[in-house]
Amino acid sequence: MLVLLILGGPRLGIIFWWIANPTRWDTAFSSVIWPILGFVFLPWTTLTFVAVAPFGNVAGGDWVWLALAFVLDITSAAMSGYNNRYRVPNYA
Hints:
Elements lengths: L1 H7 L1 H11 L1 H7 L4 H9 L1 H10 L9 H22 L9
Helix pairs in contact: 1-2, 2-3, 2-5, 4-5, 5-6
């Protein structure tokens, strides 16, 4: 799975992990909407949540891992916007 994350990114990792172990995803999330929203907006945070809280309970040092994943998601979104700023017409 680590190779999939490196080569394909977090969304590919989410798809393959869900196919390989759907029971873990069902126990980690109480509703189907949260994994879908996580897939679209915060893929690293979603993967980390399933890894550290397989039963949906986050405790202790797990918050640190979730915070790091959240920062990674926000940073990657900000950097992609910054790197594509010249594609906007009439950008100064």
